[in-house]
Amino acid sequence: MEVIIKATYEDMSRAAAQEVARILNTKPNAVLGMATGSTPLGLYRELVRMHRDEGLDFSQVTTFNLDEYVGLRPSHPQSYHFFMHENFFKHVNVPKQNIYIPSGSTNNYPSFCAWYEQRIEECGGIDLQILGIGSDGHVAFNEPGSSLTSRTRLKTLARQTIEDNARFFERREDVPIYAITMGVGTILEARELLLCANGKNKAWAVAAAIEGPVTGMVTASALQMHPHAKVFLDSDAAGELKMRAYYDWIEERRPGAPRYN
Ligand code: GLP
Q: Which of 138, 192, 226, 234 is an active site residue?
C-alpha cells in the first residue's frame, strides 16, 4: 500500500485527481468505481475543473458507484444518485447509459445485486475504484463484521454510521437503516484502489486500516491485501499513524527512486 500524506484537503484532492487523470490518459475507456460522502467532493471538483479547463475527457468512461441507501428515490437530495448527479455527472461528459449506481428502490434485491456484479464483469471490471472510509473503518457500506470476500448485497447500517450520516438529514429518524453496497470482495477485484481520508475524526480508522491487522472488523484493512492500493490523506487523518515518518521519507525520496518502466 502506498500512503501519500498532503498538508491540506485541497492538496490531497488534487493529488487524487491526478491519479484518475493518469488512468484516463492511458485508457480513455476506463471503468471507474465512484464513491460518495463529503471526502471525494474535492476530488470531483478537481476532475470537473480538469474537464472544463484541460479537456479531460470522460466520453468513453463507464462508472459504477459503490453503494446507495435503500428507500430513497433517485431524486431525494440525500440519495447517492442525486449526489453523483449534482457533484459530478452533470458537470462532465460521462454518457448517461454508462453510469451505474445501485438501486435503492428495486423490489428484488438479490437479483439486482447479482445483475450489478454481472454488469461490472461484462464491462471488463473496474480499473480504478475511488474509496472513502467511515469513522468505524468501513469501505462503501461494509460495516464491521462484513466478510472480506463479500459481494454486492443488502446491509443493515451500523448505529455509528447512522449517527455520522445524520448531519446530512433533517431528522435523525430520516437516515435510512439499510443500504445496498458492493462487497469487500467486489472492491478488491478492482485493478487499482484509491482511498482518500481527511480530518481528525478519520485518524483512528485510517491507522487501523493501514497499520492494524487485516480484519472484517475494519473492512478498509482489506486494502492491505491489494497489490495496487494508494491512500491519500491530509495531515489530520494521518495523525495516528505510527509509521508517518517513513511514509514522508518515501515521498521525499520518490524523485530519485529507480523506475520500473
Ligand atoms: C458513507 C459511505 C462511504 C463513505 C463514508 C464516509 O458511509 N457509504 O462510502 O466513505 O460515508 O463519508 P464522509 O466522506 O462523508 O466522511
A: 138
Strand, coil or helix: 69:
strand
Cα–Cα dist 210/231, whole Å: 9
Neighbours of 14 (CB within 10 A): 18
Query: Mean pLDDT across the chain, nearest whole number?
Result: 96
Q: Which of 164, 206, 231 to mutate to test the pocket of ligand 1 (most atoms within 8 A of CB)?
A: 164
pLDDT tens sequence across 50-59: 999 999 999 9
Q: What is the pLDDT of residue 2?
A: 96
Return d(Cα 190, Cα 32) in angstroms, integer: 9
> Could you give the maximum distance between any two Cα atoms of the chain, in Å?
56
The residues that bridge with 195 in the sheet, in sequence order, are: 131, 231
How many helices, marked H, and strands, marked E, lie in the chain?
8, 10
The x, y and z cell numbers of residue 188, run together, are: 478488491
97 exposure class (CB count in 10 Å sphere: 0-12, 13-18, 19+): exposed
How would you write 78-142 as a 3-class SS string? CCHHHHHHHHCHHHCCCCHHHEECCCCCCCCHHHHHHHHHHHHHHCCCCCEEEECCCCCCCECCE
Say what the pLDDT of residue 259 is.
Answer: 80
Domains, in order of start, for the chain:
9-199 (3.40.50.1360)
For ligand 1, say whether the CB of 67 is within 6 Å of any of its atoms.
yes
How far apart are alpha carbons 111 and 102 in whole angstroms? 12
Q: Which atom of ligand 1 is nearest to the CA of 39?
A: 14
